[in-house]
Amino acid sequence: xYTLCLVNxxxxxxxxxxxxxxxxxxxxxxxxxxxxxxxCQSPVLLQEKSLPLNxxxxxxxxxxxxxxxDSSNILQQKAFVPINKNLEVxxxxxxxxxxxxxxxNNPMExxxxxxxxxxxxxxxxxxxxxxxxxxxxxxxxxxFPFSTRGNILTDFSFNLNLHPNETGTFYxxxxxxxxxxxxxxxxxxRTQ
Length: 192
Known about the structure:
single chain, alpha+beta
């Protein structure tokens, strides 16, 4: 009876170890599947019929209150979270935000533009990811003369320089002492 009790205890311990191992694997998988969307983002598939298109809900956001991130270290940051609204407003004495999004240019057009429909932002940088670094496409904002925008629109408008059937990942950095409205609209020359 004593030997049978030891065997039962050994089996119970092995079952417990197996259960804990399986629990660890399950928890690890659950955490990984929760975190994965923050790292792997599906590109927004653009079609001409869908333009103009608000891409906020297909984008991600990082709030950088300390101003510690720049174009040299933002690619390594894992703290981006999905934007769940078509319009996001941030109030802060010194706002420093990053958004990122990926776009697949399926409408076969060369004139895709990104429009930020709130012109009271002091500084905006638009970057395109090229390999493991960012290329600055445009630096603008209310701190710059209106004539430097390159267009006559009151909104900030950026040419995305995406060729037909090309995918691009973009980063926007916003810096302002005013409230920042994040509302990103992708269109073309006919829809802006």
